[in-house]
Design a protein that fits this description.
84% of the residues lie in helices and 0% in strands. It is mostly helical. The protein has one domain. Helix 2 runs antiparallel to helix 4.
Length: 317
Amino acid sequence: MKRGAVDVLRRGVDNTVANWQLIVIRICEGVAFALIAIAGALAIVVPILVSVGIEFAKIRSPEDIAGAAVALLDKWVLLAWIAVAVLVLLTIFIAIHAFVEAGCARVYVDAERIAGPSANGPRARFALFSMARWYAGGVDGWWTLFWIYNGAWSAAALILLIPLIPTAALMVVFREEPPALVASGCVGLFVTVVLLVFVGVVTTVWTTRAIAGWAARRAGASDALKSGWRAMRADFGRHLLVAVAVFVVALAGSSLFTSLSFFAMFGEAVGRHHGAMSLVTLPLRFTGSFLNSCFSAVVSSWFLACYAGLATETPEG
């Protein structure tokens, strides 16, 4: 039974609120990512920069940054090591996120099925969360989701090469003509950014639909991506309306919470001659960042819950 986009969004809210524990798990995931990133930077990047004579306290101007870049370029082995370390760190992030997302998808899909197709009913009928169910979903699906993410975003990266390759070629051709060089670079950058926004939105919708499809049918990564793409094409209108609604709410909420950090930075700029101002505005900036992260976790959960509803409308998922 196909529901309207409004009903899909409403059921997604019910599913998300009833299984609010998944939001807490996502917030913990964000905190873990921040701690891992900080630890990785301190353990990998900082000692290397110091070893080549770069001190952060002495970087105060664009010329200092340029000098630091030149110093790093002379140490290409260290650059290669940093690149490998960052790649390993990103792989860890994707694996952890795949585990969390697989567990969440399992809970949302199971909750949709148990709640039934009725449009009326208490929100509590969606309440199905348990750590055992979430953990089982993570163990069962993290590897599949890992390759769903890699497959979809690798395809997106290849699409982004379409404007980047000719732009790089034109910049090489016009390297002796600064005006043409700058013009070709700016045009290529603009086209790439526009394409990046479009491809990013489509890929996010595609991966979310594929993940919901995996949770509904337990398919492999390739099958989940293929079936997710087919479902998007066959029912593009509802998938687009649901995605646009969620993205608009996400943008509005993010703008609201980001404004807290903006006001804090404005106050710090006004009182830049008073060292205490930085300490006064620090709680406001931290609160804004934390609330923004929490809101992002809520919206991500809602988005996945909506697509779980779309994936379970038919008996075969």
